[in-house]
Amino acid sequence: MGERELWRLGATELAERIRAKEVSSREVVQAHLDRIEAVNPVVNAVTRVLAEEALAAADVADARTAEGPLHGVPITVKENIDLAGAATTQGVPALAAAVSAVDAPVVERMRAAGAIPIARTNLPEFGLRVSTVNPLHGRTWNPWDRTRVAGGSSGGEGAALATGMSPLGLGNDIGGSLRNPAYCCGVASLKPTTGRVPHFMSMPPQDGGVANQVMLAEGPMARTVADVQLAYGILSGRDARDPFSVDAPLTGPVPTVRRAAVLLDVPGGPVDPSVSDAVRAAGAALEAAGWEVVEAVPPELPRLMELWARTLGEDLGVMLPLMEATVSPELVAMLRRLEEPFDVASMPMPMPMVHAERSRLMRAWAEFLGEHQVLVAPTWTQLPFEHDADLREDGVELLLDLLRCIVPGNILGIPAACVPCGLADGRPRGVQLYADRWREDLCLDAAAVVEAAFGVLTPTEPVTG
User: Fold this and answer.
1) Which H or E run includes 395?
2) With 0-12 CB in 10 A as exposed, 13-18 as middle and 19+ as buried, what is 326?
């Protein structure tokens, strides 16, 4: 395979070839740098290329015996995750020079596994939109359809992976930010159980509010489920810098009977037919692989949306006045509209009671996911929307409709794997697979079955018109 074709391979295969000395790490890194140069002008997913540092690290890797599972393999890192020597810009001009002196725990662990960061990727301002555009770096374009969003907030990662600029990426998720771009761009991702993968930022504010503490998750994105699973094992585990992180087994007991629930009729509104078709198709793939599959609706989805928005709103109420001078007026207006339907008056209970309600629903979902080990659900209930539709007067209604199946993962802290299910009208379609807390293994097992049935969509050449 020629150097310029190495960008087509996944992280696991690249690591195997480097380990076997079939290719050098320098060849692999250079192939991805060349791919970035070729396609990033079309999609604008990469914000900074780390060519000199990456090639130097590749030479070091080639001079050593392979040790870690990602020895010599390039990765990309979202620009709200600390990477030593590079700015953690959060997508805002005011932080363009906010260079971290140290790596975040997730970057540290990837480097320890032998991975080589080659580039930073784009995101919306402070990760607060599900569309990736900001005044510092501009818009990331969906490689399948330039009229539609690439998702967010890890949209740069999604588009970079989909077009072969990177085999593996790091993102995070407080409202679908690992899953939204996976759906829009046709790649795989895993939002782990909250606390499974440590989160820490070296620059203030180092500690987020209640929404960060109960809903934020760091996680991997890749083109294949196997690569996501490899990264999941590397990233997991306690780090003292994150007081909420834990050590927990990566796998649990094998169920005697594997049973999946498919969610077709989502409470709160209609679902696009192509989305429902993807859920049905994923369920059929599981059934063909020996799973029992039933239609079922998990507990109280609309209530979970209320709890998610109220919890996020608590943080935004404190943060927004401080952020107004650094973010675009359009974002401020959208966030204020988002607060309106879920203010204290709409849910007249103090935050301790909000958490009590959350606990009740965590128990209800644990019971549901005890009976059905996996829930096959839409990622978004509708197709990717046109650019900036979320900023319109009716943008909040659009978001709350799209995210009906996203928010359970965050407010309940449960894991969800995203996987594509082929194409519909030239765009990726996909599903997410939920399981109970700490059972990422069940999510990934089911995702691998779906992927085997439909194949891997990417890397793809980005559309230009």
Assistant:
1) helix 395-402
2) middle
Alpha-carbon gap, residue 95 to 28, rounded angstroms? 31
Cα angle vertex 340, ends 335, 342, to 5°? Answer: 105
User: Average pLDDT of each block of 10 consecutive residues along the chain (465 residues)?
Assistant: 77 98 98 98 98 98 96 98 98 97 98 98 98 98 98 98 98 98 98 98 88 96 98 98 97 96 97 98 98 98 94 89 93 90 72 93 98 98 98 95 98 98 96 98 98 98 93
Q: Is the pTM of this model over 0.85?
A: yes
Evaluate the CA torsion angle 370, 371, 372, 378 in order and state its sign. negative
Provide the residue type at 441 as one letter. D
The shares of helix, strand and coil residues in the chain, as percent rounded to the nearest 5, are 45, 15, 40
d(CA 391, CA 237): 38
Residue from 25, 100, 131, 153 carrying the catalytic annotation: 153
Coil, strand, or helix at residue 259? strand
For residues 252 and 443, the answer to whether their CB atoms sit within 8 Å is no
Candidates 25, 78, 131, 276; catalytic one: 78
Structure tokens at 276: 């429902």
Q: Token pair for residue 279? A: 């859920």
Whether 153 is catalytic is: yes
| pLDDT tens-digit readout, 422-439 | 999 999 999 999 999 999
Given the residues 154, 177, 189, 276, the one annotated as active site: 177
Check residue 250 and give left, alpha or beta (phi > 0: left; psi -120 to 50: alpha). Answer: alpha
What's the rounded Cα separation, in Å, for the pair 431 and 378? 5
Alpha-carbon distances, residue 156 vs 21, 23, 221, 302, 419 (angstroms): 31, 27, 11, 30, 18
Write the DSSP string, 146-176: TTBB--SSSHHHHHHHHTTS-SEEEEEESSS
Q: Is the peptide bond before 153 cis (omega within 30 degrees of 0)?
A: yes
Q: Decide if 124 contacts 134 (C-beta within 8 A).
A: yes
Strand 374-378: give its sheet, edge to edge: 46-49, 116-121, 74-78, 168-173, 217-222, 188-191, 416-424, 427-434, 374-378, 259-262, 292-295
Query: Is 24 considered catalytic here?
Result: no
- C-alpha span between 312 and 215 (Å, rounded): 9
Which residues touch 262 (CB under 8 Å, ≥6 apart)? Answer: 279, 280, 282, 283, 293, 294, 295, 296, 375, 376, 377
Alpha carbon 218 to its chain's center: 8
* Alpha carbon separation from 103 to 40, 59, 106, 108, 326 (Å, rounded): 25, 21, 8, 6, 24
Q: Is 100 one of the annotated active-site residues of the chain?
A: no
25, 3 Cβ separation under 8 angstroms: no
